[in-house]
Design goal:
mainly alpha; Arp2/3 complex 21 kDa subunit ARPC3; 14 helices
Length: 312
């Protein structure tokens, strides 16, 4: 792992640990039974994990209960809900056994996102603007989404040498509508809790599961389309390789030349910072740039001497 990534992970873990320790001294709970009910639900929901496309990561819907906690519970209570759920999400049925620093980063990163979102929702600046509760919730959702996804995208960017904006956009930005839907559910739970009772608010849980199922179906369709695209790309590559072999068979001096052109073209493309798609196109073009030889008669291509004017 690059040194920059290690420093960044250490920074997030340190800040998150300090925030958790500081808030635990301010622990309070007005209704312990209600709190424990939502804590258990959040932890159970964190087990409903969805694999993110393109990265070795997962997403679960426990953030709905985190947003609810920011609306209705104290910050220490919300921190316990969020950090406990993040811990279970990281460890439960993980495809690859997570390392200690990965667990610490996920938990501390969640703490940082929760504290930042709580400060944004309860800030005097926003309150003084007399904003509607729904608008405050949307702003809080945006803050939470940003603070939850950007740190992870930053680590991926530092580790794999990719542009941060590209990693964040391709791996996380598409999930933003689901965060908005989750914020709406958190708002409904909060309203039912306030005006009817927290037991009635638990009836929203089936809706959460419905979102999880629809989300899973959507990601499954995305994964199928990705596999289909990869199969087509593989078919195209095999076709190109077959044509390259045909060129090589027509002119025995072409093989090394094709390889040299491919190496030079790709290295120049990398220096020009071309995208992955453009580099793949360049690779194909390098293999096929002599494809016109297939239409040239054998006795002309293989002629040892100079070509006549008519042959040329």
């Amino acid at each position: 792992m690059p040194g920059k990534a290690k420093i960044y992970i250490s920074f997030i873990c340190t800040v998150g640990a300090v925030l958790i320790a500081n808030e635990m001294f301010l622990w309070e709970s007005q209704d312990i039974l209600r709190y424990l009910s939502y804590l258990v639900l959040a932890v159970l929901t964190s087990r409903l994990k969805l694999n993110l496309p393109g990265v070795n990561g997962t997403l679960s819907l426990f953030f709905i209960f985190v947003l609810y906690g920011i609306l209705q519970l104290s910050l220490p209570e919300t921190l316990v809900i969020g950090c406990s759920s993040a811990l279970v999400q990281t460890l439960w049925h993980s495809r690859v056994r997570p390392k200690a620093y990965q667990v610490a980063f996920n938990v501390c990163g969640m703490a940082l996102a929760i504290v930042t979102t709580s400060y944004a929702y309860h800030s005097e600046f926003l309150r003084s603007r007399h904003l509607d509760v729904a608008l405050l919730l949307i702003i809080s959702c945006i803050v939470f989404f940003t603070m939850s996804t950007f740190p992870v995208a930053t680590v991926i960017s530092l580790t794999e040498g990719k542009r941060l904006r590209k990693v964040w956009y391709e791996c996380y930005f598409w999930s933003f509508p689901y965060y908005l839907a989750g914020a709406a559910i958190a708002g409904v739970i909060s309203a039912v809790d306030r005006y009817v009772g927290w037991q009635s608010a638990l009836l929203i849980v089936p809706v959460v599961y419905l979102i999880y199922r629809s989300y899973g179906l959507y990601l499954g369709r995305v994964e199928d389309e990705k596999k289909h695209a990869e199969e087509l790309a593989s078919l195209h590559l095999r076709t190109i390789e077959a044509l390259a072999l045909a060129i090589e068979a027509k002119d025995h001096t072409t093989h090394d030349h094709l390889k040299r052109v491919q190496v030079y073209a790709l290295e120049i493309g990398k220096s020009l910072k071309l995208s992955r798609v453009e580099l793949e196109a360049l690779r194909a073009a390098a293999l096929l740039h002599d494809i016109g030889k297939l239409a040239v008669p054998e006795h002309i291509i293989s002629k040892p001497g100079k070509l006549t004017r008519e042959e040329f």
